[in-house]
Amino acid sequence: MVKLYDGGVYLVGGKEIVAEQDAAKVQALTGQAADKEEAKKGTIAYSILSAHNTSGNMDKLKIKFDAMTSHDITFVGIVQTAKASGMEKFPIPYVLTNCHNSLCAVGGTINEDDHVFGLSAAKKYGGIYVPPHLAVIHQYMREKMAGCGKMILGSDSHTRYGALGTMAIGEGGGELVKQLLCDTYDVSYPGVVGIYLDGKPQPGVGPQDIALAIIGAVFKCGYVKNKVMEFVGPGIASMTTDFRNGVDVMTTETTCLSSIWCTDDDTKAYLTMHGRGDDYKKLNPADVAYYDGMVYVDLSTVKPMIALPFHPSNTYEIDELNANLGDILRAVEKDAERLIGGNSDIKFTLIDKIVNGKLQVQQGIIAGCAGGGYTNVMEAAHILRGAQCGADEFTLSVYPSSMPVYMDLVKKGAVSELMAAGAVLKTAFCGPCFGAGDTPANNGLSIRHTTRNFPNREGSKPGSGQMSSVALMDARSIAATAANGGILTPATAVVDDYVVPEYEFDDSSYRSRVYQGYNAPVEGAELVYGPNIKDWPQMSALTDNILLKVCTKIMDDVTTTDELIPSGETSSYRSNPLGLAEFTLSRRDPKYVGRSKEVDKLEKARAAGKNPVDLEPELEKVYAQIKTIDPDMVPADTEIGSMIYCVKPGDGSAREQAASCQRVIGGLANICREYATKRYRSNVMNWGMLPFQMKGEPEFEIGDYIYIPNVKVALDGDMQDIKAYVLGEQVKEISLYIADMTPDEKKIVKAGCLINYNRNRNR
Fold first, then answer.
1. Which run of H or E residues covers position 3?
2. 561 and 502 housed in the same domain
3. 310 contacts 455 by C-beta, under 8 angstroms
4. Residues 273 and 343 occupy one common structural domain
5. DSSP secondary structure, 279-338, as one string
6. Strand partners, 307
7. 650-678 burial, b for 16+ CB within 10 Å, e for fewer?
8. Strand pairing partners for 619?
9. Reading across the β-sheet that carries 667-672, which strands appear in turn?
C-alpha cells in the first residue's frame, strides 16, 4: 500500500505521523504545542542545506557542494565552458567517469578521444579520472565519495546518494560550471516530503519494485516535483544499504530535486567497508519535524512490479498485468500510435507477444546504477542457479555496476552461475539505460532493471522504421522470467529462503587505474583535443525587443529530454555542439532543425549588420505589422530567434544538450504550460534562452512569428504579464509569464549564455 497524505504532516519521534489539521496531537505526544516554522527546521534536509548555504537566507539558497561528478557525455562540454569562462583549476573534488561512451566503436564515434581529453583535464586542472569499464558514475560515487551530511552535484539526472546520507542533485552542465568558477547553486528553499517506510519487503521483492510503486503513486500528480524526498520510518532498517541505494537512485523518476535517508549502523558498516568510516554521522529528523507532504509505504504489501512503455510511472503489479494482458497491452499500443505518428512502415505490437495466455519477452537486462549492484546480481544468480535461459530468442545480459562488484561476484561464484544459465556478463556501462547498448530487435520487448524506459532509451528510431520497447522490472523478477525462458514471471513465484552473503569490497582495480589528481594539477599540462571536440559557437546578447519564429509545436502531455535531443548513437557528437544539434527533435519533429537553422541565418545576418529581409522577404510584411504595434521598433536592433512550444518539456536527463542544441542553431526561447523539471529549465536559462510559460492554449502555429517588445524591461519586473504579439493574417495579443529567476539567471539570459556572462565578468 502506498498512501499520499493530503497536506502537510508532523513526524513525532521519528515514527508517529500527525496530519497538520490534527496538530493538537503533537502537544499530546510531546507536551508542547506544534510550532510549524520551527518543525520545518527539524528535517534532515534542512540541516544539510543550511550547512551548505552561503546566502544567510534559508528562503533563497546559495549552495556550495562538497564534490562533483560527470560522465563522458557531459564532461567535455563542461570543461570547455568553464575554460572559456576563465577557470584555472578544479576548486573541489571533481570525478570524471567514462561509463556512457565506453564503447570505442568504429563508424566515427571517436569516444576514446573524449576519454583522452578527460584524462588531460584531470591532469591540467586537478581532477579524478575513472577509465572506461571500471565503474558506472553513481556506483563509483557511492563507493568512494559519498558520506553523511555531504552534498554532491552531478551532470547526470540520477545523481542520488541519499541512502548514504548525502544530498545529491543532478543538473545540467551550466550548474557545474558555476561551481568550478566558485559560484553557487541558487535555488529557493525546496519543499520536503517524507517517505515513511513501514514493514519489511517480502522475499522476491527488490528495490526496483519498491521504487516503481512509489513512482507510480507520485509522478502523475506531481506530489514531489522539485522537492526533497526524505526517507524515514522503521522500514528502513529492514533493508541493507545496498538495497536502499537501489530504491534511492530511482527517486529521479519522480521529478524530485534530491533525496536523503535516515542513517544507521548499516550505513556506518557500508562506509567503513569502503574505507570511509569517518564519513558516517547518524542522521535522523528532530523529535518534531514538519513535512510538506508524506508518502506512507507499507513495504510488506509491495509486490513485484513492472513499468510498461513508455514511462517509469506506467506501473502495474506483474500479477495484475498477467491477469489482464490483453486490455493493458492494447492501451500501451494505443499510446505508441503517438510516437509512430501514422507511419505505416513501423510495426509495433505487444498483443502478439501473448503466447498461450502468457507474455513472452525477447530480452532481459540487469545493469547500471539501479540494477548492477551486488545484492541484485547475487539474488538473480541464485534464482538462475541450475536453470537455463533457453536457446530461443530470449537473451539476458548482466552488467555489474563496478569492477569491485564484479570481482566479488566472481569470488562468490555468481558469475559462473549466471554464465551457466546462458546469461552474458559485461563490464560496467550505462549504455542500456540510454539507448546505446543491447538494442533489442525491431518490435522487440525488453525487460530491464535500469533507470528509464522512455521512447528511444532502448534504441528505437521511428524515423527509420525501427521501433521496440522497454519495461522496467527488478533483477529478481527478470531472473525468474529468464529461468522461465522469457515468460513474464514474478520473483515471488520462485524464491526461497536464500540470504545474500556479505559483500567484500576490494578497490585494488581503482588503486591500479584511477587517476587521483585532486589538488595536484600538473604544471604545463595541456588539454588534448580530438577532431570531434569543438568549441561553442558565438551567441548573441539579448536585445530590448525580440522576434521569435515558432519552429515546432508539440502538444503531448510530456516531452522528454530524449525527445528534445535523442541519446544513444547521437552521443558520438556530444563534444561537437553543431554536429549534435543536427539531431535536435529528430525523432519527434524531423523538420525542426531545418526550420531553426533558417531562422539562425536571419539572426546572423542581423548581427553582422545586414538586412535579414534580403534572406527572407516575408520579414518585410512582419516588420510592417510590428510597426503598427511598436512604431519605434528598429529591425536592426531586434534579435531574431527560433522558439519551441511544448506542453511540459524536460522530463528525464540532466543533459544540457537538450537546451544547448536548440541554442546553437538559433533557439531563443521556449514557451510551455510548465517545465517538467528544474534542471531542464536551468539549462534553458544557462544557454541564454527565455523560459516563457503561458496559461492558455497556444494561439499560434508552426511558421508564425511572435513579437515581444521590451523583454529586458520585463525581466527586471515581476515577469507575470509579458505582452507578446502573434503576427499572422491579423495581430493577436497573448500574455506570457516567467517564473522566478535569480538576479544572476537574469544576467545570464541578457548576456546570451553563461559563457558570455562569465566573459563579461572577467572583463
1. strand 2-4
2. no
3. yes
4. no
5. G-------SEEEESEEEEEEGGG---EEE-TT-TT-EEEHHHHHHTHHHHHHHHHHHHHH
6. 315, 472
7. bbbbbbbbbbbbbbbbbbbbbbbbebbbb
8. none
9. 690-693, 667-672, 638-646, 545-554, 705-708, 722-727, 731-736
Residue 524 lies in a domain: no
CATH of the domain at 272: 3.40.1060.10
634 and 681 part of one domain: yes
Pair 343, 370 in one domain: yes
Q: How far apart are the first and last CA of the chain?
A: 58
CA angle 429, 378, 402 (to 5 degrees): 25
Domain extent, residue 405, equals 305-508
Phi, psi of 171 (to 5 degrees): -140, 170
Q: Whole-angstrom Cα distance, residue 370 to residue 546?
A: 44
DSSP conformation class of 473? -
Spatial CB neighbours of 672, under 8 Å, sequence gap ≥ 6: 645, 646, 647, 648, 649, 692, 693, 694
User: Which three cell numbers mark 421?
Assistant: 544459465
Which of these three, 171, 186, 201, is where a domain ends? 186
Q: Which of 263, 295, 327 is the last residue of a domain?
A: 295
Together in a domain, 163 and 234: no
Is residue 649 located within the same domain as residue 709?
Answer: yes
Question: Residues 245-268: what's their mean pLDDT?
Answer: 97
C-alpha cell of 207? Answer: 528495490
In tens, the pLDDT along 273-325 reads: 999 999 999 999 999 999 999 999 999 999 999 999 989 999 999 999 999 99
Whether 238 and 168 share a structural domain: no
Report how far residue 215's alpha carbon sits from residue 253's, in angstroms, rounded to the nearest whole number: 7
Q: What is the DSSP string of 144-211?
A: HT--TT-EEEESSTT--BGGGTBEEEE--HHHHHHHHTT--EEEEPPPEEEEEEES-PPTT--HHHHH
- Please give the pLDDT value at position 105: 59
Quote the cell numbers at residue 101. Answer: 561512451
Residue 259, SS3 per DSSP: strand
pLDDT digits (tens, 9 = 90+) for 574-623: 788 888 899 899 878 999 999 999 999 999 999 999 999 999 999 999 99
Residue type, 34: A
Residue 226 lies in a domain: yes
- Structure confidence at residue 399 (pLDDT): 96
Strand partners, 68: 94, 153
Buried b (16+ CB within 10 A) or exposed e, 77-116: bbbbbbbbbebeebbbbbbbbbbbbbeeeeeebbbbbbbe
**pLDDT tens digits along 654-696:** 778 889 999 999 999 999 999 988 889 999 999 999 999 999 8
- With beta carbons less than 8 A apart as the criterion, state whether 250 and 224 touch: no
Distances (CA, A) of 36 to 33, 41, 42, 312: 9, 9, 10, 34
Same domain, 151 and 275: no
The rounded mean pLDDT for the chain is: 92
pLDDT value, residue 336: 81
Exposure string for 352-373, b = 16+ CB within 10 A, e = fewer: ebeeeeebbbbbbbbbbbbbbb
User: Residues 152, 69: contact at Cβ < 8 Å?
Assistant: yes
Query: Parallel, antiparallel, or unpaired: how do β-strands 722-727 and 705-708 relate?
Result: antiparallel
Q: What is the distance between the alpha carbons of residues 139 and 134, in angstroms, rounded to a whole number?
A: 10
Question: What percent of the chain stands above pLDDT 90?
Answer: 77
How many angstroms from the chain centroid is the CA of residue 550?
Answer: 27
Number of structural domains (the chain) is 4
Give this prediction's pTM: 0.91
Given a cut of 80, whether residue 27 has pLDDT beyond it is: yes
- Alpha carbon of residue 186 to chain centroid: 19
What's the confidence (pLDDT) of residue 240? 97
Query: Side-chain half-sphere of 381: how many Cα atoms within 13 Å?
Result: 27
Q: Which residues pair with 11 in a beta bridge?
A: 17, 289
Cell (9 digits) for 391: 536457446
